[in-house]
Design goal:
Elements (H helix, E strand, L loop, with lengths): L7 E4 L9 E4 L26 H8 L9 E3 L2 E3 L1 H15 L10 E4 L35 E6 L3 H11 L4 E2 L5 E3 L12 E4 L17 E2 L1 H17 L2 E9 L7 E7 L2 H10 L5 H5 L6 E6 L16 E5 L4 E5 L5 H17 L3 E4 L1 E4 L5 E5 L6 H5 L5 E4 L2 E5 L2 E4 L3 E5 L9 H6 L5 E3 L2 E2 L6 E2 L10 E5 L11 E2 L4 E6 L9 E4 L1 H10 L1 E4 L11 E4 L12 H15 L2 E6 L2 E2 L2 E2 H8 L9
Parallel strand pairs: 5-6, 6-11, 8-23, 9-10, 9-14, 12-13, 13-15, 18-28, 28-32
Antiparallel strand pairs: 1-2, 3-4, 7-8, 11-12, 14-15, 16-20, 17-18, 17-19, 20-21, 21-27, 22-26, 23-26, 24-25, 29-32, 30-31, 33-34
């Protein structure tokens, strides 16, 4: 009996034990192809002769192929890669050896580099000391892992960085070493002609250092990075307003740091990356290597140094990733006011009618919770600019506290902690990999860093019109402030400069009783100029665009919790303000 499919048929006899015998037939299209081989499935043999060839077929190139327009014509892809590597080598140039390291793009674990090797590049922008004899590091190639994807950085972290794991939600959990928070007393700013108009002296967060000491620390950081077999390089942007965008380059030794900044800065498109060029600011994160305590101005093995004339930042002796984020925020506090743009330590969201609200508040005041209202569009949770075009987020991600995080209280943040997010210093079950957000064994300052588009109602691009409401948040533990107060312009400036809140148990280590605290502009640790300069700019913009000031007490009033008051009044959390 024929099967009717042109491939086989059953013969009624001739088989063993009188069973039908199966006879195969060629398909019509195979009649003339006698060299065909019969397989168990319909797939053709793989086009590879070795396992290495097979693995090479698994990954396809995703690098952009559009050539770069240059004065002499177009750059090929190979020329573009060489240009990027020369720029990175120049960034890593030693000030005493005139040239940067020999660099090659790709993972050193691979047998073949992804691009041709590039010899050492010199940096012609600065005057250098005479050249010394070549060192051992000058004889080797440094592998550059350039703008890796989250998946690639996961692989690097898990393979090479102890303490890196994947949680049950898909986030990468890692440790920041001995430092689990910022080190403001170890932050230094070079005092020179460029920075003479900064806020110096008593009460200022800017601790001065000289140019020579900065260069000593820079040399130490660059030498350490160049001694490594590989370094991670991120080229990204700050500020979603395209007219005032800043190009930043981050050179780091850990995949954790690269993924953190991938999330926190604005991620360039392939086309934008092609024409990135020379960065406006560069971070050298050598946090695994300490500074020299005998160096002038050093008070510990940690030093975070800003040179605003050179547009460079050095990190030594701390692996806490938040130093990079807040260091760049300080840079924006320096650069933006020079362009008559107000830089703000605030959350920001927008209603469906286009009404924008700014939220100023210190730790524990509810700034993140209020700015991530599910009924409004999130523009950003922490750092913003207010220009003639409206408001814009400085960052491309969110950096949320995780202590006591729950799905019920903050569902958006809970759901954002997934593949691509970074969890710092949290504790998790060794078998299920489920995170215990209430566990403070490592630190109380547990954090999550994730791209802002992980929030469902995020507004992309993260820009909005001029604010309608400016909301100053204070968690008053003494029950003096009313729940909500509408402020005059003068009152808004007074509370903005004061930056009052009460630290309660759980906000900082050692706090057991409510303690009043003040932070100018609700971010004194990050501002560069005197607080009155930022306050004057805020007053001018509020007056020009008709914004209303509010003081909101998120603590206690007349012996009652303000949250309880709001619930009893049956107001949605935002409607009570407007």
């Amino acid at each position: 009996m024929a099967a009717g499919n042109g491939e086989f048929s059953f013969r009624s006899s001739g088989g063993r034990n009188n069973l039908p015998k199966i006879q195969t037939h060629k398909k019509a299209e195979d009649v003339d192809n006698d060299d065909k081989i019969c397989h168990d499935d319909s797939a053709r043999p793989v086009k590879a002769n070795t396992l290495d060839e097979l693995h090479s077929l698994q990954k396809k190139k995703s690098a952009p192929t559009t050539p770069i327009q240059a004065a002499q014509g177009f750059f090929s892809e190979e020329q573009r890669h060489k240009q990027q590597l020369q720029s990175i080598s120049a960034s890593l140039a030693s000030l005493t050896r005139e040239t940067g390291p020999k660099v090659v793009r790709g993972d050193p674990a691979r047998t073949t580099p992804e691009t041709p090797r590039v010899p050492a590049a010199s940096d012609q922008q600065h005057h250098f000391a005479p050249t010394f004899n070549i060192s051992d590091s000058g004889l080797k190639f440094t592998h550059i892992l350039y703008n890796l994807s989250p998946a690639e950085l996961y692989e690097q972290a898990i393979k090479y960085e102890k303490g890196s794991y994947i949680t049950s939600s898909g986030a990468l959990v890692t440790l920041s070493g001995a430092k689990t928070g910022r080190s403001p007393r170890d932050k230094r700013v070079v005092r020179d002609e460029t920075t003479e108009d900064l806020w110096w002296g008593k009460g200022s967060p800017n601790i001065e250092m000289d140019e020579h000491t900065f260069l000593v620390n820079r040399e130490r950081a660059v030498d350490y990075l160049c001694s490594l077999e590989k370094v991670y390089v991120n080229d990204q942007f700050l500020n979603w307003d395209p007219e005032h965008r800043i190009k930043v380059r981050i050179v780091s030794a850990r995949a954790y740091h690269s993924l953190f900044m991938h999330n926190m800065c604005i991620r360039p498109t392939p086309e934008e990356l092609e024409n990135f060029g020379t960065p406006d600011f560069t971070i050298y994160n050598a946090g695994q290597f300490p500074c020299n305590r005998y160096t002038h101005y050093m008070t510990s093995s940690t030093s975070i140094d800003l040179n605003l004339a050179r547009r460079e930042m050095i990190i030594l002796g701390t692996q806490y990733a938040g130093e990079m984020k807040k260091g760049l925020f300080g840079v924006m506090h320096f650069l933006m006011p020079k362009r008559q743009i107000l830089s703000l330590h605030s959350g920001c969201n927008m209603g469906k009618e286009g009404d924008v609200a700014l939220f100023f508040g210190l730790s524990g005041t509810g700034k993140t919770t209020l700015s991530t209202d599910q009924n409004r569009y999130l523009i950003g949770d922490d750092e913003h600019c207010w220009s003639e075009n409206g408001v814009s987020n400085i960052e491309g991600g969110c950096y949320a506290k995780c202590i006591d995080l729950s799905r019920e209280k903050e569902p958006d943040i809970w759901n954002a902690i997934k593949f691509g997010a970074v969890l710092e210093n949290v504790v998790f079950d060794e078998h299920t990999r489920e995170v215990d957000y209430s566990d403070k064994s490592v630190t109380e300052n547990t954090r999550a860093a994730y791209p802002i588009d992980f929030i469902p109602n995020a507004k992309i691009p993260c820009v909005g019109p001029h604010p309608k409401n400016v909301i100053l948040l204070a968690c008053d533990a003494f029950g003096v402030l009313p729940p909500v107060s509408r402020l005059s312009l003068a009152q808004t400036m007074y509370h903005f400069i004061s930056g009052y809140t009460a630290l309660v148990a759980g906000t900082e280590d050692g706090i057991k009783e409510p303690t009043a605290t003040f932070s100018a502009c609700f971010g004194a640790a990050f501002i560069m100029y005197h607080p009155t300069r930022y306050a004057a700019m805020l007053a001018e913009k509020m007056q020009k665009h008709g914004a209303t000031g509010w003081l909101v007490n998120t603590g206690w009033s007349a012996g009652r919790s303000v949250c309880q008051y709001i619930c009893e009044c049956k107001y949605p959390q935002m409607e009570i303000f407007f």
